[in-house]
Amino acid sequence: MAKSPSCYGAFQHFFPSNQRWFTPGEFALAIGKSDQFVRDAINDGYIAALDFTIPVHKKKGRRSTYAIPREEAMRYILSCGYFTPDQATEGILEIIHTYGKTVRNKVKESL
Predict the structure, then answer these.
(1) Are 22 and 68 in contact (CB under 8 A)?
(2) Is 54 helix (H, G, I), strand (E, B) or coil?
(3) Where do the domains of the chain lie?
(4) Is the pTM of this model over 0.70?
């Protein structure tokens, strides 16, 4: 069993350490906002999420939904001032250490 990065401990009061993906509703509950707030933040580009459609009923067709990866949830929480600057810096460094290659690629893409 893989050991969770140490920064996950700082996020324990937001969500369980074993959960890798979150629905907008789960993430909204964790940060004390509405599901619509999270969906708007995704649509406005403040939160990165996987957008996919799922079947809901034969007659009703499909509906679109989002999945927010844990590292993006942590990044958003750190960027919104839920932590002191020292805690935020430690969390950001841990994310970079854990997801370094992915983070570097995203930074390069945004430049």
Answers:
(1) yes
(2) strand
(3) 17-110
(4) no
- By C-alpha distance, which of 48, 107, 102 is closest to 74? 48
pLDDT band at 104 (very low <50, low <70, confident <90, very high): low
The CA-atom distances, in angstroms, between 40 and each of 6, 35, 66, 80 are 30, 9, 12, 15
| 6 close to 21: Cβ distance less than 8 angstroms | no
Total Cβ atoms within 10 A of residue 49? 22
CA 103 to CA 8: how far, in whole Å? Answer: 17
Tell me the torsion sign for CA atoms 43, 46, 48, 54. negative
Q: Is 68 helix (H, G, I), strand (E, B) or coil?
A: strand
Radius of gyration of the chain, Cα coordinates, nearest whole angstrom: 15
Structure tokens at 104: 């570097």
Residue 30's identity, in one-letter code, is A
Tell me: the pLDDT tens digits for 64-92? 789 999 889 888 887 887 667 777 677 66
CB-CB contact of 20 with 70 (8 Å): yes
